[in-house]
């Protein structure tokens, strides 16, 4: 047979087992005729793929470990917004109802979260404004991402992104808006606890979207991500821990408990510790905004009467795994049109006043 050498001259092969060898352009030999070169190339390719896979797994582990270490609260105080409905209400009552205005001040003067969802038309700009305000004051803001498709199972806070593609764009906008600035992100209240109302396909989609959101936001250099984990009266700790592991809590700072809830801080801490033990020591935050008197004897989640403000936001929790007590739910904003309340998220001055009054009563 006729073979072409590297120099371009013809070499006659014998056709026997000792086939001719053509020399490659860098001095190596191309063994021809017995297929050994193809076999060696395939082996090398498989070896390279294995090496790359091992390297990628190591990089993912390193990224996850780094994300868990990000803790802006260790260096910065929480951001307190200069405006907001509580401050506006206190100012409106200052002359005619000075005592009540002072009680509402006790809400306005505390750090509270910024909730972002489908009612905010430019999530990138909203997030950028909030983290810029934090940087200007040397503080860290808390942002709640609340926009999953099929949010709240069609209840009072229903809505969310129209589909998976829209949600991915929304999360990317949120991440871009935050950028390199310090921030706390509480990811999707009820997102994991509320899986029960979804179809099997919707559950799979939600788990995928949460996994991707954790990964995208945890790549930000100064953002601590806490995935919502419900509350102790809803989903058992073991079940919630499995769900958190499935969406990548190992690649986040940790999780949040009692968001918008009324469970006592003691029970919330116990629930958080139980989950932490099952998630390789993940850290957590507790929403104490309205749990001062705990839940009713027959718990209600939507504007229950007679409740009170809880512990003020602080990083002094007395538990090494509990990073902070936060006011994630904004006290005085309605849970929905129940127990006489306005639509979800609407400022309700009389309910806010009741929370503050009962917190101030010994």
Largest sheet: 7 strands, parallel
Gyration radius, rounded: 28 Å
What is the correct CATH architecture of the largest domain?
A: Alpha-Beta Barrel
* CATH superfamily label of the largest domain: 1, 4-beta cellobiohydrolase
**Average pLDDT reading:** 88
CATH domain topology of the largest domain: TIM Barrel
Alpha-beta content class: alpha/beta
How many runs of DSSP E, i.e. beta strands?
Answer: 11
Helical segment count: 9
Q: What order do the helices and strands follow?
A: EEEEHHHEHEHEHEHEHEEH
Q: Which residues sit in consecutive blocks of at least 5 with pLDDT less than 50?
A: 1-33
Distance between the termini: 101 Å
Domain count: the total is: 2
Shape type: elongated
Helix content: 25-40%
> What is the CATH level 1 assignment of the largest domain?
Alpha Beta
Strand content: 5-15%
Give me the side-by-side strand order of the main sheet: 5-6-7-8-9-10-11
Task: Quickly describe the structure.
With 362 residues, the protein is α/β, with parallel strands linked by helices. 38% of the residues lie in helices and 12% in strands. It has 2 domains: 2-62, no CATH class; 70-360, 1, 4-beta cellobiohydrolase (TIM Barrel).
């Amino acid at each position: 047979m006729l073979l072409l050498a590297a120099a371009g001259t013809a070499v006659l092969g014998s056709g026997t087992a000792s086939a001719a060898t053509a020399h490659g352009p860098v001095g190596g030999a191309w063994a021809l005729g017995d297929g050994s070169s193809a076999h060696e190339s395939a082996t090398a390719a498989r070896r390279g793929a294995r090496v790359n896979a091992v390297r990628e797994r190591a990089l993912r582990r390193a990224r996850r470990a780094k994300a868990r270490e990000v803790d802006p609260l260790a260096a910065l105080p929480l951001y307190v917004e200069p405006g907001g409905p509580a401050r506006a209400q206190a100012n409106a009552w200052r002359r005619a109802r000075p005592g009540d205005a002072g009680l509402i001040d006790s809400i306005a003067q505390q750090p509270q979260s910024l909730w972002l969802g489908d009612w905010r038309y430019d999530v990138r700009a909203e997030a950028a404004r909030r983290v810029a305000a934090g940087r200007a004051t040397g503080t860290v803001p808390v942002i709640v991402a609340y926009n999953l498709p099929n949010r709240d199972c069609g209840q009072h806070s229903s809505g969310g992104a129209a589909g998976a593609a829209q949600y991915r764009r929304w999360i990317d906008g949120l991440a871009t808006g935050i950028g390199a600035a310090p921030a706390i992100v509480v990811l999707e209240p009820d997102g994991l606890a509320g899986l029960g109302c979804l179809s099997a396909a919707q559950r799979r989609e939600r788990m995928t979207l949460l996994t991707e959101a954790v990964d995208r936001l945890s790549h930000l250099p100064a953002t601590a991500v806490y995935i919502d984990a419900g509350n102790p009266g809803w989903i058992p700790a073991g079940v919630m821990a499995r769900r958190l592991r499935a969406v990548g809590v190992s690649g986040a700072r940790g999780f949040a408990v009692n968001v918008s809830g009324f469970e006592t801080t003691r029970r919330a801490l116990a629930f958080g510790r139980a989950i932490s033990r099952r998630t390789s020591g993940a850290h957590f935050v507790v929403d104490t905004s309205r749990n001062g008197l705990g839940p009713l004897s027959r718990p209600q989640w939507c504007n229950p009467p007679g409740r009170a403000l809880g512990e003020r936001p602080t990083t002094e929790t007395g538990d090494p795994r509990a990073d902070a007590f936060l006011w994630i739910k904004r006290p005085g904003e309605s849970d929905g049109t129940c127990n006489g309340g306005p639509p979800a998220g609407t400022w309700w001055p009389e309910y806010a006043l009741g929370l503050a009054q009962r917190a101030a009563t010994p």
